[in-house]
Write a structure and sequence with these properties.
3 strands; 42% helix; globular
Length: 115
């Protein structure tokens, strides 16, 4: 299954807003919208970690999907109200416009004993 991981720095003062939104997606009032969004995008697994670094706090994101290009395209272009809200959140807390696409990281190392 194709996977991708990337880091997204937080804009100043935005970490708590993101944390609250992600908790609401995981187990709160946004859970149904979040799960529907990821289903439409074909995302089968998503993990988000908050990492403190000397350069500031960052969200470390891991996504698994059969078609990563389709997944990011859906998240960036969908008119579904949850997806529009999610794009606004990402722009507000990270300064990233999913509508414009984002450069994906270079994959430089893979190790898996199950292969």
């Amino acid at each position: 299954m194709p996977t991708i991981a990337f880091a997204a720095p937080y804009l100043p003062g935005k970490i708590e807003a993101d944390r609250a939104a992600l908790i609401a997606c995981r187990s709160g009032e946004l859970k149904d919208g979040y799960e529907g969004s990821r289903g439409r995008a074909g995302i089968t697994r998503e993990e988000v970690f908050i990492q403190s670094t000397p350069m500031g706090d960052m969200a470390v994101v891991f996504i698994e999907a059969d078609d990563l290009e389709k997944a990011f395209g859906t998240l960036g272009k969908s008119d579904d109200p949850f997806d529009v809200w999610f794009r606004d959140l990402i722009r507000d807390v990270h300064g990233i416009s999913l509508e414009d696409g984002m450069p994906l990281p270079e994959h430089v190392l893979h190790f898996d004993t199950s292969e």
